[in-house]
Amino acid sequence: MNATILHIPTIIGGMTSGPRVGAVVGFMFGMFSFIQTLRAPSLLMQFAVQYNIVYDALICIVPRVCIGFLAWWLYRRLPLKRWMKALSAAVAVTLCHTVLFLGTFLALVGAPYAEAHGIPLKNVLNILIGITVVNGIPEAVISGVIITPIVLALEKSGWKA
User: Fold this and answer.
1) Domain ranges (residues) in the chain
2) How many Cβ atoms from other residues are within 10 Å of residue 88's Cβ?
3) Which one of 3, 91, 95, 151 has the largest count of C-beta atoms within 10 Å of its C-beta?
4) CA distance 12 to 8
5) What is the pTM of this model?
């Protein structure tokens, strides 16, 4: 799998401009990701493309649209100081993005992937958990560090959702 920071604009858009903007930016991120899987996929996504291109599109797009909504919802509802709310929402939404993306992969092509490679489905789950730990946690930390000052600066400048 490839680590990414492309979810950051989606989260910032959702947090600062609302669920519609978050969903649109998430859709664009998902489309970019889908096109990337057609051009130069990671090993797991190469299987998804070859197995079912519609599933590949769903894996790439649906979780990204969801995080736009989730970023808005979580940021509006956390009862914390602004900086802590931005940091917490950024980290939580990034982790949710990782889980949604890999969970969608598991749900749609996990069993065929396991069958094609002659391994138990539990091993596919273990691979995805490993990816979550190796990629997802560092992505979440980086997201919190990048997103928090940007959201606070946008709000300080008078940006209204």
Assistant:
1) 7-156
2) 16
3) 151
4) 6
5) 0.91
